[in-house]
Amino acid sequence: MKSHLRFTLQLGFTLLVCLFMIVPVAMSVMAGLTENYFVGLESGLTLRWVDEVWQLYADTIWLSIKLALACLLITILIGVPAAYGLLRSRRRWANAIEELLLLPVAVPGLATALALLLAYGSYREFRGSWLFILVGHVLFTLPFMVRAVLSVMQTAKLPQLEEAAASLGASFRQRFSGWSSLTV
């Protein structure tokens, strides 16, 4: 009986939290799609407000998408080989490098931003470009990529799979690029 009561209370709390998060979003969507927000749906539906927001922020939205894709590409190009190297290395320094890679997550974002400004603030062209924002994004997201890829490589027993592939004649390049297509 206690477990049923506990489940009911947990479910009720979860639903309240969901409502707390969903209601403001629903009200914002409603405000953007109605002629007059205060009248409600009776005033009619329109995309006028959405169009106005798009005209104001389209460049910013596209820049954000480009920035996200560039950040993803860079973190993949750096994070996957870094995770692979950390997995393959059995040396003491591998743990130190892994901890250094996690440092941007431990340090507050404001401190990282100030450090970037102090380090590159004198380069006005760089500081004023979107590349400066990209560097900050990569610094923050790279640890998440490395940890996720490292975890997948560890659970996939990559060293044993590589040893088996090498015994069958696969080169390093074939082993590195083909491990993700294996079906175990």
Automatic annotation (TrEMBL):
Its main location: membrane. GO terms for biological process: transmembrane transport. The keyword Membrane applies. It comes from the Bacteria. GO terms for cellular component: plasma membrane. The chain crosses the membrane at residues 12-33, 61-87, 99-123, 129-150. Keywords: Cell inner membrane, Cell membrane, Membrane, Transmembrane, Transmembrane helix, Transport. This is Binding-protein-dependent transport systems inner membrane component. It comes from Vreelandella titanicae BH1. The lineage of its organism: Bacteria, Pseudomonadati, Pseudomonadota, Gammaproteobacteria, Oceanospirillales.
